[in-house]
Amino acid sequence: MLANSLVELFKHGGYIMWPILVVAIVSIAIVGERCVWWIRESSRRQPERLEKVLAALENGDFPEAARQSSESQDPVVRMIWHGLNHVNSSLQGALQVAAGAEIKRAGRFLMVMDTCITVAPLLGLLGTVTGIMSAFSKVGGELAIEGVSAGIGEALIATAAGLGIAIFNLVPFNFLTERVSKLQFELETAATNVEVMVNKAKRQGFDTVDFRRESSVQNR
């Protein structure tokens, strides 16, 4: 019954309902994909491993830090690993590039969601205008009451559909934006800590040149 009612509303909403339907399908697909992605990423977080990596860096044990951070799926630990690969050349640049890649991955499709939030009400408003125009075009003719009612109904259905899609996108968009901001803060904090610890270790005379080679030997 519900499906039949939705189909009838779609038919009475006019031609503008087709682009609104496209926006709705895109919105549902993106929200579903992002929810699955964040659930998977949450399961990959390794706060204990991150603490071990930072502790090793604080002690100047670069081989241990490399061993702990290698092959990790945690985005923060993964960023540290990329930074350690360039510890003797451009640590800060490597950390920034790695952090940027993680943020880009986390913020994927957010721009599309933002576009859907903006476009859906505009399409609904366009449906309102075309519906009212259709209603006025029936005034004075035969079956004027039915024509005017159909035009007004088309306007209201399109408006409701556009607003509904915008509301549906707005809540997960704000939630996902907050998650991305939180991840960015964690990455920036970890990158700053790594830079401070590495510089401190270098000043204290700890050797970082062969840490990757030493780490690979220890892993064997």
How is this fold's topology laid out?
Layout: H1 2-12, H2 17-44, H3 47-58, H4 62-69, H5 75-84, H6 91-106, H7 110-137, H8 144-203, H9 211-219
What does this structure look like?
The chain contains nine helices and no strands. The protein is mostly helical and 220 residues long. It has one domain (2-219). Mean pLDDT is 86; it is low at 213-220.
Task: Detail the poorly predicted runs.
Answer: 213-220
Give a short account of the largest sheet: none
Query: How large is the radius of gyration?
Result: 27 Å
From the N-terminal CA to the C-terminal CA, the straight-line distance is 65 Å
- Based on helices, strands and strand pairing, what is the structural class? mainly alpha
Helix proportion: over 70%
Element order: H for helix, E for strand: HHHHHHHHH
Total of DSSP H or I helical runs spanning 4+ residues: 9
Overall body shape: rod-shaped
Beta-strand residue fraction: under 5%
Summed up, the domain count is: 1
Mean pLDDT: 86
Number of strands: 0
